[in-house]
Amino acid sequence: MYSYDEYDQKLLDQRVAQFRDQVRRRIAGELTEEQFRPLRLRNGLYLQLHAYMLRVSVPYGTLSSRQLRGLGHVARHYDRGFGHFTTRTNMQFHWMKLEHVPDALADLAKVQLHGIQTSGNSLRNVTADHLAGVAPDEIEDPRIWCEIIRQWGALHPEFSYLPRKFKICIIAAPHDRAALRIHDLALRLHRNEAGETGFEVMVGGGLGRTPFLAKTIREFLPKRHLLSYLEAVLRVYNQLGRRDNLWKARIKILVHELGVQKFTELVEAEWQDVKDGPVEVSEAEVARIAAQFSPPNYEDAPTFTREFDELRLNDLGFARWLRTNVGGHKQPGYAIVTVSLKPPGGTPGDITAEQMDAVADLADRYSFSEIRVTHAQNLVLPHVRRADLPVVWRALAALGLATPNIGLASDIICCPGLDYCSLANARSIPIARRLTERFDDLSRLHDLGELKIKISGCINACGHHHVGHIGILGVDKNGEEYYQVTLGGSEDLNGALGTILGPAIHADRIVEAVETLIEIYVALRRDGERFLDTYRRVGLAPFKERIYAPA
Amino acid sequence: MPLLKNGEAIADTWQHVAAGEAVPPAGPVVVPFERWKAEREALLARNTPLGVRLPNAQNVGELAADLGRLELIVLEFPKFVDGRAFSQARVLRERYRYRGELRATGDVLRDQLQFMQRCGFDAFEIAAPNAAEIWRAAVNEIDVFYQPAADDRVPAPRLRRSA
After folding, report:
1. What is this structure's pTM?
2. Between the CA of residue B14 and those of B23, B24, B29, B60, B104, what are the distances in Å?
3. What integer pLDDT is reported at residue A550 of this predicted model?
4. What pLDDT does B163 receive?
5. pLDDT band at residue A27 under the 50/70/90 scheme
6. What is the CATH number of the domain that holds A371?
7. Which of A18, A238, A239 best probes binding to B when mutated, by most B CB atoms within 10 angstroms?
8. Which domain holds residue A31?
9. Measured between alpha carbons, how far is A512 from B20 in angstroms, rounded to an integer?
10. Smallest Cα–Cα separation from B86: which of A159, A231, A119?
11. Which of A172, A193, A218, B69 gives A189 a disulfide partner, CB atoms 3.0 to 4.6 angstroms apart?
């Protein structure tokens, strides 16, 4: 993985010093809250309902064990002993005190972490397939290009005051594991007919009040032109994106209002001027960064061992865990382990400082010191020898991190909601907790199969409800919490936005309603059908009739 | 309004002519873009320095033919969050090679000065008594730059290659 050189480290250290001075000026009364607000937001510091929240960037979801310990340190010393992983693969600390933030950022800088551009109308953290570099179906590691964009976009003088935030995602496999098309700019590395790799460029995805999936504006962009093309897209957006209405300021609205063709023409015209200019990344720089993403020194590891086989046959818990939480690896003899942050009754994405340290230790011993964060708010140990799976499973189970539910009904994506967030209309965490308690019977959970439930506490859709097989959106009706349900959303490359089931459902009845939806699915499903398949076959009507049937 | 140019607080010698005002007969004048379009011939006939104040929604390409005759372009930041003029500045400097004064006016924040300078601004209207002091602090806090822009700072990728 990428390790900072002297330039990267110097910039980060200077940034910490700069923010320390800004906090000093704020505490001394030299800056009003109004003046301080844009400065703290540039460093990922929000003022929420109860306290300051610090959002720390985890670039493209890759962490070293040292960095995970660094996050654990901040949780322990400056927060209440835990942190929360978000759908953007970042970590949030929800109980920060302003006067501690400069020290927390200085400690994070020592492990090459920061909160730069995790807020504000700027280029946000670039996300990637969380299985980058290890997925058997990938053509090359997309994180090389994520890192190139990270550097180019850091403190960008022209694009730091965009009409609205700007999120980029890159994948390099036919399977989309990163919800690619819900991003403002979505890049898919693929091979053209000549055998060269380049990017399919898609723009204008995003959820929120007006959800869109990103549309293709260029089928194939040679990799060497990535930065000039981004400059062209962003310059068009910076100049023409709407600034009169916060709800219409994302690039998706510009693309929608201009039409894809007109938008593409403007970008291509702008690109002709910046193409091959000084912004293009040099081959030497690509090679320098690519070298840092070269695979670790894998051993010639056995595919199976006797212990593994016996445990698989004799322990249902291990067998279930293998089925949902372990995936195939590029390298024979290795596996990819997903660490579930979705225990029954837990807050999705929450992890304690002790768990962070323990996962870091496991990564050191069994995964070349590397950890990934997924957009579904789980962690991944990306390089585990198959022979080590029994010991890793036992260790994770002892930590409460081996719930065999990845991709199942209790693997819920959930935003912080009204428990923390000042934008929320309703709570989302208690709904997630009640649902995971309801679906804690593992036989039933495994029988139900893949089922993605996603919960947002407001229309900003941080919990991705639009693309949940079952989406749940919190709304406020005269001070009471109600939940609007959508069905049939999907975040893969052939993705779809969910359809609204009907009138919003009261908080007291929402868990029962989800239970009913699942009963209907079980009654209607044919062999091997997932919830989404059945929904696509039978449509909304059977679900709607039962849910809204007169009592 | 105090004017900061190349890091020094100086007096503004330009006469800013508003939409309906008469253009003074002598001395450097800066006019709104609409007026420039309407009275271009007459203004070009003056034997004085000329400037244009450009709204931030304006495509700067429309001024391309006149840039050789202009000594000042004023770009607007109606609110600090409205960053359109950052792009206008870079396009003027990098695409059209404009060499005259490029001035930022409006809601110009101390913490944006370095970005503005990187995009090609060399003059700033700032409502602060200690503008020069603020300038020195603001443009020196960070001295590592990843991306090329309209200034002459060498970005990190190029420094790495020459190291």
Report:
1. 0.95
2. 12, 11, 6, 21, 14
3. 83
4. 64
5. very high
6. 3.90.480.20
7. A239
8. 6-110
9. 68
10. A159
11. A172
